[in-house]
Amino acid sequence: MGTALHLNEIGQIALTVSDLPASVEFYRDVLGMNFLFNSGTMAFLQCGSVRLLLGTAEKSVGDSATIVYFRVPDIQLAHETLVGKGVPFTEPPHLVARMKSHDLWLAFLKDPAGNTLGLMSEIQRTPEKEMK
User: Fold this and answer.
1) pLDDT exceeding 90 applies to what percent of the chain?
2) DSSP 8-state class, residue 24
3) Of 44, 62, 59, which is closest to residue 117 (Cα–Cα)?
4) Is 104:94 a contact under the CB 8 Å cutoff?
5) What is the b/e burial string over 94-113, where b = at least 16 CB atoms within 10 angstroms of the residue's CB?
6) pLDDT digits over 101-113, tens only?
7) What is the mean pLDDT of residues 28-55?
8) Relative to the CA of 56, which of 23, 38, 75, 127 has its CA 20 to 30 Å away?
9) Cβ neighbours, 10 Å, residue 37
10) CA-to-CA dists, residue 132 to 96, 98, 126, 128, 129, angstroms
11) DSSP summary character for residue 40
12) Which value, to the nearest 10 degrees, does the dihedral of the CA atoms of residues 69, 32, 60, 67 take?
């Protein structure tokens, strides 16, 4: 029957915005979210246990203006399981950022309505891997 997969934790939500500085100011100063960092045309804020990504439409994944990212412990296994169930992926798992203590991996898929969904996995590095 295959591996059971349960997506039950949202790790990040991405919103497309037209004015990144104004949007950061609104979410940080008006709504009180904790600002994390900027990365080019994107800014990241913390909203409880969920990270909010604000990004301009310069480069979007698919046609969705909003993307929900589901946190998975093993992105390769989640990808294989969903592909085995016939789920179409627009981007397979790939490394997007090397952080201080972990690597951030993402993959993107489509739901039946054509909405883009993301899988995200923050893979901790061992001390040996951090030194390389």
Assistant:
1) 57
2) H
3) 62
4) no
5) eeeeeeeeeebbbbbbbeee
6) 999 999 999 887 7
7) 92
8) 75
9) 9
10) 17, 12, 10, 7, 5
11) T
12) 30
SS3 75: helix
Could you give the domains of the chain? 10-131 (3.10.180.10)
Give dist(CA 95, CA 121) in Å, integer. 9
Asked if pLDDT for residue 132 goes beyond 50, the answer is no
Structure tokens, 88: 């179409």
pLDDT, position 95:
95
Residues paired with 14 in a beta bridge? 53, 67
Chain-centroid distance, C-alpha 53 = 8
**The tokens of 44 are what?**
């990241």
Rounded Cα distance, 116 and 60, in Å:
10
Eight-class DSSP state of 31: S
N-terminal to C-terminal alpha carbon distance within the chain: 40
Phi-psi region of 48 (alpha: psi -120 to 50; beta: other; left: phi over 0): left
